Each structure stands twice: as structure tokens, then as C-alpha cells.
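Q: Joint fold for the lines below.
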Amino acid sequence: MMRILAAMVLAMIAVSPAPTFAGEGERTPKPVVTIENPGKCVAPAEEMRRNHMEMLKHQRDRTLRAGIRGEPASLNACIECHASKATGSVLGTAEGGKGRNFCESCHSYVAVKLDCFECHQPKAKFKAAGVKP
Amino acid sequence: MTLNPRHEEGLFYLLAAIGGLVSAIGIGAALYMEHSGHVVTGMNNQVVWGLPHVVAIFLIVAASGVLNVASMGSVFGRKLYKPRAPLSGLLALAMISGGLAVIMLDLGRADRIIVAATHFNPTSVFGWNVILYPVFYGVVAVYLWTMMERRMYPWMKVAGYATFIWRIVLTTGTGSIFAFLVARQAYGTALLAPMFIIMSFCWGLAVFLVVQSTMYAWNGLTLPPLVLQRMKNLLATFVAAVLYFTIVLHLVNAYFAKNIAFEYFILFDSEFAGMFWVGQILLGTLLPLALLFNPATASKALWVNVAALLVVVGACFHLYVFIIGGQAFPLDMFPGYDVKSSFMDGAVDHYRASLPELLLSLGGLGIAFTMTTIGVRILHFLPQDDLAELEAATRATD
Amino acid sequence: MTAPQTPDRNPRRAFIAAAGAGVAGLGFAAIAPGLHLMAVGEANAATEARKAGTAASPAVRWGLLIDAGKCAPGCTKCIDACHTENGVTEKLPDPRQNSQWIRKIELVDRRDGRKTELPMMCQHCANPPCVDVCPTGASMKRADGIVLVDRHTCIGCRYCMMACPYKARSLVHVPLTEQNPEVPRGQGCVESCTLCVHRVDKGQTPACVESCPEGAMLFGDLNDPSSAIAKRIASVPTTQVRADLRLNHGVRYQGL
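A: Joint structure:
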């Protein structure tokens, strides 16, 4: 009984698609990253890909806790530059339903939670209306 | 009453399943609150802590108090309490787990609970508690180990002392959460730290008595009258001590002119007055005292259990009046003025718990119940008394 | 953000910038290439923008003096301005669950029935109870006396709300999407008046101060004896709410 079960499990693993090595029939489409303003970033793309979270984390602590303003790394600067020209946001589905906007494209692919936008505004040049009490 | 073994096993699985279901519903309610925000609770920016905190603080306070049974044996050398120490340790772990689960799941950002461990503020009483609770788990676990593993027996006394000291510190920490608040009239007095300790003694013993009786009944045994006698006397003493602290606390408040309005509110002129007089004082204090001192009822296990259950019910009223009542009263920012605003200034808040927070609170009780049920099933926790030795010891001390 | 450079001719500002840089242990008080000083927006600005790259200075203590005698009955302009500036847009069925960064309190003196109104918000205490009780250190006081919540480490336990004698703090009860880019705020975290820290750092005054048609609110540096606010506090009787707690407020009232 156990042996049959084990054989079945092995067979299922064998026939299941392996996303890592998949070429043609991949399950999750690779992210399509659209750079709206190429060549204007604060650091080379390789460094940004690896270290953007560290840069943002340290900048956020310096700005909030020490009050240092005007640093080159800043989430708002990222958003202003990288927001989709069509939808105005770094989140959500990209124009024409193909792929996702800048931040979400990679983060949804690698399944890393984007906690920033629980509090930060993902749209460039957004202005809230406010309410009367 | 003796159960047929097959029925008995079925009943165990049924109880464990009910406990598990209640816990799961509680966690589901917490996920719903997490998803929707605290808008689905009755809590607001005036009453910031609600029913979940009442239940969680009851569980945490009673958890440290239930350990008192073990301390009576290993620290104060009472033979009667020694066989009860393992059960008291298990109950302590079960109840603190239920309480902490509710507190953590109620956080606005429960997903970030790890931040509480990675960022520490030494001036925060909550910060101290972040250290006090895990160490509590550790010392109680080690204590249980020294009691249940023969090779560890020599360390039992040391572990017992460590546990006793730590649980006193822990309850001081819980009481200090409120004792260190200057903002509201209801809190901010050092009396709360010792008061929470005596409350924990009382509520912990009451829970222990109920669980112990249930286990005896389950196994078709009756609690030896001597044991019942001793434990109900101790419970009566603790109930009276809590009453004493309650009287002193309210007298102090009534004496300070700045707190008279609050005292009048909580004792006579609010929805909390009825809970205080009927729930906390009559049901939770006077009735149990009568049952425990009246010779007709005090010798019967049933009535002692009723008294213990009443103490638990009274404890919930006590904490509800203390926590919710203390927040419902408006902050006194401008003495000598009548104040009014869009945000409850000068007005009493009427908090009503919503269904999700009620289910979360019950979930905490469910976690404690399930852990206890499974614990007593798989490990040896039923107290076994050596009656001859006990009677000899009693004669010697009396 | 990019604005013409403002000549640096205020000696006090130079001193503050240097002190701030020294305290923060930073070596780059000089402006980094490619960055511009931010403009001094209004003529009535109480201060000027801090240089980019410099930390808030403990030599400064930002404060607010509110003249309750001038606060017009029924006027909510400061609240509207605050909500617009800070993107407080949610309106929940239970108003007690709405965020209350600033609110108007109506006072009636029990002795003579005299009516007063005043805005109440975070008092920016020098010894803030909310900072003492916060388990993660998310509740914090900046070097220049502004009390803030670091929403990156706030876990939403609400202990600070229990500890605040002014009910100045609110929990965000719902998910938000309408935040202003310069004022991040979100579900499950506690928030309160920031003294418009993002404006103050640019050399502007808080939105409430700017909006008050009666000029009842005065913003400035309490530590600078030559500032308008310090001079007024030195010359007229002012009060701190619940002065018995000795919290040493940045926000003071006159005409109470």
C-alpha cells in the first residue's frame, strides 16, 4: 500500500511542470519591466535590482528619525520616475492588460510582499481631497 | 460516574474537536479583522482596547496565578499541593498561550509581530512584557520537566523558586501596564501591581479547582475531602483579599477630589455600575464567599465548584469594568469647564463588542481549553494523593 | 521639489545646520551636487528650509501658540486644511473610528458660562508618554521636538493611545488608498498630528497655522529668544493643557 502511494507521488512529481527550468511552457510569465525614463536612475540597474530595498530602508530611517531630507534615494522619487505614464501608478495592471506596472511586475513574480504601499501612495503626483469633519 | 472506555475516548475527541473549532473560528475572525481593519470591531479611538483585551488579560493574569498551586508545594513545602504542581504548570502554559494569541491577533498590524522582538524600547512596560512572557514559557517548561522526569527531581525546588519569582514579576508587569498610565482617571496608581498579583492568585486557583474537579469526575474519582477543604479555604482567603484591594482602590479614588467624578461614574452612574455591583461584587465576591464559608455548602464539591466558577465570572466583570469602564469615561483635560467636541470630549463612550472580536476572544479560550484537554490526555497530570501521608502531615501542622 | 536656490544669509540657520550636522555625526553639511535648496514658500514663514542632507537639530524646538481668544466659534478651517494637507479622507459610519489629527473643542466655564473654542491636537511634549510606552520605539520624538509615529515599526498595539492624556492619537481603522505622497499613512498603524513635518522641513508653517483666518495660531522655534512665538510666550500668560503632568508641551494656549 505504502509503496503504491510512494510510486504515485513520485510519478506526479515527475510529470509536473518544473517552473525553474521551463523554457517554452512556463507557468508564470517572466515580468516585463517597463522603464519609463531610461538612464536617469540614481544607480546602475544591477545595483538597484539587488539593493533598492536596503537603500530605501536606510533612507527611510534617516529621513523619518533624523529628519534628513533631499537624499538621492527616496521612495517618492522612485514613484515619480517609474510610475506608468498610462496609469500613473507603480502598482496594478499595466496599460492594455499586458503585465504589471513597475514595482508589482517583479514583486508579484517573486512573491515578495510589497508592504510600502500599505501606507505610501503608489501614484505619481497624487493629491488627496481631504474631508470636512 | 464512570465512562465506558469507548465512550470516553469518543468524548475526548469530541471535546478536542470543539476546542479546535472554536480556536479556528477565533483565528478566522482575527484574519477578517486584519483584512477589513478594526472598523469591523466595536473598538474605536476612545475605547482603544476592547473585549479581546478583557479576555486576554484574564487569561494572562489567571495563567500566572494558577502556578501558585505549584508554588504552594515546592516553595512553601505544602505536601497537599505537590501532586498538583504538574497540572498547574500545564494550565499556566495553556492559558498564557490563549491570552497572548488574542493580544497578538488583535494588533493593528498582527503581520508585523516579529517587530516586537526585533525592536525593543526599554522604557515600555509592553516592552518588558515582550521579555517576561517568553521567559515565563521557559521557566514553566523547565519546571514541568523537573517534576515529570525522575532524573531532574533534584532541580525541582530551584525551578520552583525561579518560577515563583518570575510569575510575581510577570504579574507585576501586567498590572504595571495600567499602573504606569497617567492619562486616564481609572489607572495610574501603584496599587494596581500588587492588586493584579492577588487577583491572579484568586482567579488562577478558581480555574484550577474547576479543571481539577472535571478531571476527577472524568476518571470516576472524588476529590479527597481534606484536599477540598484546604483548597476552598485558600480560595475564600484570596477572594476576600481581592475584595480588600478593590475597596482600597475605590476609597483612594473617592478621596482624591480630581477622581470623584470618575468614581461616581463607575460605581453609580453608568452601565458599568450594575456590572460592578451585581457582576463583580455580588456574583463574583459575596456569593462565592457565602458558599465557601457556609458549612452546608462548603463541604460539597459541587458548591465549591460553583463558587470557583462564580469567581471566574466575577473576574470577567471585574476586568470589563476596569478596562472598558476606565476608557469610556471622558478624559479630564480642562478642569472646571464643560467640554464638547466631534470626538467624544466630555462625553461617555458606549462600547459594544462586535461579533468578530467576540469570536476572537472565544478563540483565546478555545486555545487554552484545547491545549489543556490534549495535555491531560497524553501526559500524566491527574493529581495522585498519598492520603495517609497527607493526614499525618496535617496532624503535624495543625 | 526643484526650486531656485535661496541665498543663505540667516546666521541662525547656518548655526542650526552646523549644529544639526555635528549632532548627527554627518560630514556632509555641504549640499550634495544635483540637489537644490527648497524654497521658502510664504512671506510669513516662521523659518527657512533646512539644507538637504542635514538632520533636524536639537537646538530648535518647534512649537505652536494658539490664542483661544481669537479662535472663531464654529470655524473649522484649520481642520479642513489639516485633512486636505495630510490626506485624511476616510469617513466611517462610526465617527469615533475616524482619525482625529486635530479637533475643535468647545469649552464652557462652569463658573460664569464663558464660552471658548480651541483646536486640540498632539501637544508635542518634551516628555511624551506615548514615546515612553511604545514597545517597539515606533513612537518617537525628533531632535527638534516633533513627536512622530514611525509607521515602519508600529504594530498597532494602541498602548500610546491609552497613554496620551489628549486623545491626540488615532488608529487607522480601514485600508487606505488616498494618501498624499508626502504623508504616508495606513491601516492598522497609529497616527497623530506631525506638526506638518514635511512642510516645516521645507521652511513652511503647518497647514492649520497657514489656514487660520484669525491668525490665532503662531508657529516657530521656542528655543530662539528672537522668534515671534518665544517673544509672545515671554510677554503674555500662556498655559499648557494638563500642566500638572509636567510634560512640557510644544503646543501652548493663551486666552484660556
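Q: Anything notable?
A: Chain B is about 75% helix and 0% strand. The first strand of chain B starts at residue 337 and ends at 341.
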